[in-house]
Amino acid sequence: MKQRAKELGIALVFLPAYSPNLNLIERVWRMLKKHLSDNAASLGFDEYSAYADSYMDSTGGLRQAEISRLMSERFQMFAEAA
Known about the structure:
- The protein has four helices and no strands.
- It is mainly α.
């Protein structure tokens, strides 16, 4: 795979096995979990599920700035070990 990627001019970037800070969707899950744990602790499953759906449905407009900050690709890069 490395050889074929090199032939095609593709730069492979290997991430640590567990790197939620580099996985953009993990940031959204963290935001959702925080919001739900702060506001829906006493709800039953169906109410909780509906509340989560409602929250995520509103992310396109109401929470656009927050989502944009979370989804930035400003990562700290380290040089490869020699």
